[in-house]
Amino acid sequence: MIKHSEEFKREAVRIALTSGLSRERVAADLGVGKSTLGKWVAQYRPADLMSEPQADLARENERLRLENRVLREEREILKKGHAVLCKPKAVRFAFVHNWRHRWPVELMCRVLQISERGYRSWRLRPISQRARTDMKVLAHIREQYRLSLGTYGRPRMTMELKEVGLGVGERLVGRLMKANGIRPVRTRKHKVTTDSHHRLGVAPNWLDGDFVAAAVNQKWAGDITYVWTSEGWLYLAVILDLYSRRVVGWAVSDRMKKDLAIRALDMAVRLRNPPPGCLFHSDRGSQYCAYAYPKKLQAYGIRPSMSGKGNCYDNSAVETFFKSLKAEMIWRQKWPTRRQAEAAIFQYIIGFYNTRRRHSYLGGISPLAFEAKVA
Questions:
Q1: Distance (Å, rounded) from C-alpha 276 to C-alpha 279?
Q2: For an engineered disulfide with 161, which of 5, 128, 166, 262 has Cβ 3.0 to 4.6 Å away?
């Protein structure tokens, strides 16, 4: 065992008390055990080890270290709680309560500009009936927001909550959504593109802007759009029944050829078996004007109709679907492969758009529910 001199012990204690380093670091640097250093610190009083200027310096260092620690904690609290600074006091009280195990309550109250007395009163006060109702409604709002892919604003959210049995109004729903940062995803402007520079046959515009149908399988509308993936473009052709706005046929491909539109048509016919005379409306794109497509329509007994020249917005029902698809799903993330994008589109159409999504045109219900209601 190494026997250390009294002078060495005093110097070791002086370093431990004035260097600002941890006991473990000082002990390791001096080659002694942490417990041994601790015994030396307890044995020699600081007044015996340092002069008055040294003692003042040590106290100032300790004060600065404490001040830096407090400033770091205040900065961390602000980083976590900046979103609640402008919220009502009850929200800030809840933040203090949730983080009380990490930071001192007194410090958090000072940073968030609330009183400790107010926090204690809030904690002991029984929750009000209004707060209980808000918590219940908010839980349903979060669930319906998730199921709607983050697309529902106040009106549709209110419809959804009423359907599950909650007697709420738009004012309450709007207040809770705003207070909790729940808002529908904003959409981009949709760019319409149609390749109509060709000399193929064009059908008359029998639809003539009348997108209202009296029953299913009376009027259909179709179009083609594109989705960018890391592998390149993925093209999507769809057909909508204008009566319920339900997607009745779709197909995807890495090439925008006439067979893409034909596969969507074949699917729609297999699914719906339309009666002779059903009207199919599209733009003047070359995929719909090519000889094979009108021939297919004739074989199925479907009457073709095409938008007016230079009027790409004469097919607004399908363009609206494309905008919803891209705003509510496609634009939210990057798609590494065409297969992933294709699977997501299939899930959107089958699992959400046709079966769950509330359509303003249908009075706030889904296409599937609308068809069942009038069946």
A1: 9
A2: 166
- d(C-alpha 156, C-alpha 160), whole Å: 6
Q: Are 338 and 234 in contact (CB under 8 A)?
A: yes
How much is the pTM?
0.58
The burial class, CB within 10 Å (0-12 / 13-18 / 19+), for 223 is buried
Q: Tell which residue, 110, 111, 118, 117, has the closest CA to residue 90.
A: 118
Q: What DSSP designation does 226 have?
A: E
Mean confidence (pLDDT) of the chain: 83
User: Position of tokens 């041994």?
Assistant: 36
Cα separation, 191 vs 332, in Å, equals 17
Rounded to the nearest angstrom, the gap between the alpha carbon of residue 235 and the centroid of all alpha carbons in its chain is: 25
- What's the CA gap between 350 and 348, in Å, rounded? 6
Distance of CA 214 to the CA centre of its chain: 37
Q: Pseudo-torsion of CA 264, 269, 270, 272, nearest 10°? A: 120
**CA nearest 266: which of 349, 258, 205?**
258
Asked if 312 contacts 318 with a C-beta cutoff of 8 angstroms, the reply is no
pLDDT at residue number 51: 54
**At residue 190, does pLDDT exceed 60?**
no
Residue 313 makes CB contacts below 8 A (sequence gap 6+) with 192, 319
| Contact call for residues 225 and 322 (beta carbons, < 8 A) | yes
CA 261, CA 291: separation in Å to the nearest integer? 12
Q: How far is CA 344 from the centre of its chain?
A: 16
Ramachandran angles phi, psi of 115, nearest 5° = -95, 150
CB 217 within 8 A of CB 188: no
The dihedral through the CA atoms of 310, 316, 317, 318 has a sign that is: positive
Question: pLDDT tens-digit profile of 307-364?
Answer: 866 555 578 888 889 988 998 889 888 999 999 999 999 999 999 999 988 888 888 8
Q: What is the pLDDT of residues 100-116, one digit of tens each?
A: 888 888 888 988 888 99
Name which of 90-99, 221-230, 333-342 the model is least confident about: 90-99
How far is the C-alpha of 361 from the C-alpha of 374, rounded, in Å? 15
